[in-house]
Inverse folding.
């Protein structure tokens, strides 16, 4: 099954932000596009906005003047009340991008089904509703497919091609190939709550909010650690302020409800308070941060300078943080290797210990400081440390000085088991393994979706391979013992992955 021929007209119903973006993508790809909206004048205004964006592309030499003129000639705005849906009758693909309400989408698609040809594709751009439910009232639900573009559609490459329970394989394949012909990167997925990205991305927000609610750190510090240590492009608080707290919370709540209030997807009470107070982020001037005139940027907590220890004693292998030993030596700090393997920690001159976050709390050991997982310890510019009230001040000072000697800014958190980056990555890895086991998508498509859809520095399975077979499971199992609510319970899929024998290595490590 091939992509739609460029001679086939495409219709987009709904001239809002997403509708305009999808129309522009199809238009630039070479199709004639009918842009329909039920509100008088809105389609014309949207068409003008699209042409204005094409003008800017010409100014930036990303489009020629001739291509812009040809695209303008192929774009037809349709005034819903005056012309009606009948003008879309010859379109080979109709993409709806109307209000995110099930009954509205169902009614529209039932009407379209009576207008377009029997072999025409119908598509929904829903981000949170069930494609199966949307197509439930159609006579021929096999031709309905989800085409979930990401905003802004002309810029972001990812398109989730979602097959509902009744979607024909031929329909999904044709939609997939059409998205690829339009210059997008499609990924195929089953109709599951949140599809790929909005399902697997929930812990990125949830764990940041949970650390904040537990008084572990303030939003600016958590965001800085996610960016400067974890390698994420934006922190969870600044990203949800950009998206809109109401929009982000709505998706979280929808996924949570669709999974029958599964504890892994529980919404944040702190975010609910923001929404209730009308502090929705950048669009209202206030969210987690203040964007009003005169408001300065919120600064993360950064520890004052401390003296580096003259030496550390390495006990065992630091696993994902093993690169630190070479960095410590390069900084002129002696690394003494313990002949006996007592664990995976560094012993500081004071006798206190420094360990990679593993899901345990600092209070369980009288004198230990945990440090967070980094995407790349050499390139990271900030490291988070966690200590309890029982941690000796000298131990914490030596830990701070050690990482400062490596050129890192240091943020000290409260007693946060699993820290910030480590627990977030572990949960993302878990949800990804669970999704593959349940037939949602392939490992490759999940990695592609998370890198392109939300700009993660690595896909979940890339992380999983880098961190080791048992790493995410062990950390979540530790967290689950300390918080048996079910939020951190590792999935059966992750358990199987952690303990399955690797035939290439002949071990379960």
């Amino acid at each position: 099954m091939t992509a739609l021929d460029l001679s086939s007209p495409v219709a987009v119903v709904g001239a809002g932000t997403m509708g305009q973006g999808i129309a522009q993508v199809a238009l630039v790809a070479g199709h004639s596009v009918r842009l329909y909206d039920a509100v008088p004048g809105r389609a014309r205004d949207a068409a003008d906005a699209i042409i204005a964006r094409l003008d800017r592309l010409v100014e930036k030499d990303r489009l020629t003047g001739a291509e812009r003129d040809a695209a303008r000639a192929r774009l037809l705005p349709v005034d819903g009340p005056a012309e009606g849906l009948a003008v879309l009758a010859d379109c080979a693909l109709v993409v709806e991008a109307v209000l995110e309400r099930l009954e509205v989408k169902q009614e529209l698609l039932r009407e379209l089904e009576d207008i377009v040809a029997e072999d025409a594709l119908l598509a929904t751009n829903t981000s949170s509703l069930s494609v199966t439910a949307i197509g439930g009232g159609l006579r021929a639900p096999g031709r309905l497919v989800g085409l979930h573009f990401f905003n802004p559609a002309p810029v972001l490459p990812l398109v989730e091609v979602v097959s509902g329970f009744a979607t024909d394989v031929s329909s999904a394949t044709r939609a997939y190939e059409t998205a690829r012909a339009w210059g997008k990167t499609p990924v195929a997925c089953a109709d599951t709550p949140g599809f790929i990205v909005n399902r697997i991305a929930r812990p990125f927000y949830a764990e940041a909010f949970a650390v904040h609610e537990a008084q572990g750190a303030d939003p600016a510090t958590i965001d800085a650690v996610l960016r400067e240590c974890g390698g994420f492009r934006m922190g969870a608080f600044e990203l949800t302020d950009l998206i809109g707290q109401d929009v982000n919370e709505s998706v979280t709540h929808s996924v949570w409800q669709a999974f029958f209030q599964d504890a892994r997807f529980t919404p944040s009470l702190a975010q609910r308070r923001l929404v209730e107070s009308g502090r929705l982020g950048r669009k209202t001037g206030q969210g987690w941060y203040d964007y009003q005139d005169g408001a300065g940027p919120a600064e993360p907590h950064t520890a004052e300078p401390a003296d580096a220890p003259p030496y550390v004693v390495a006990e065992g292998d630091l696993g994902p943080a093993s690169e630190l030993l070479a960095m410590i030596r390069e900084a002129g700090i002696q690394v003494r290797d313990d002949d006996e393997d007592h664990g995976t920690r560094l012993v500081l001159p004071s006798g206190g210990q420094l360990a990679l976050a593993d899901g345990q709390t600092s209070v369980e050991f009288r004198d230990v400081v945990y440090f967070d997982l980094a995407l790349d310890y050499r390139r990271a510019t900030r490291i988070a440390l966690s200590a309890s009230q029982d941690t000796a001040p000298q131990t914490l000072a030596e830990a701070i000085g050690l990482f400062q000697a490596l050129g890192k800014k240091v943020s000290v958190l409260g007693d946060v088991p699993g820290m910030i980056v480590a627990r977030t990555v572990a949960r993302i890895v878990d949800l990804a393994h669970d999704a593959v086991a349940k037939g949602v998508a392939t490992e490759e498509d999940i990695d592609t979706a998370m890198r392109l859809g939300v700009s993660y520095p690595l896909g979940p399975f890339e992380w999983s391979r880098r961190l080791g077979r048992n790493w995410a499971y062990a950390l979540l199992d530790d967290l689950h013992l300390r918080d048996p609510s079910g939020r951190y319970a590792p999935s059966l899929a992750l358990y199987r992955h952690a303990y399955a024998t690797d035939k290439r290595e002949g071990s379960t490590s």
Notes: Residues 64 and 463 are 41 Å apart (CA to CA).
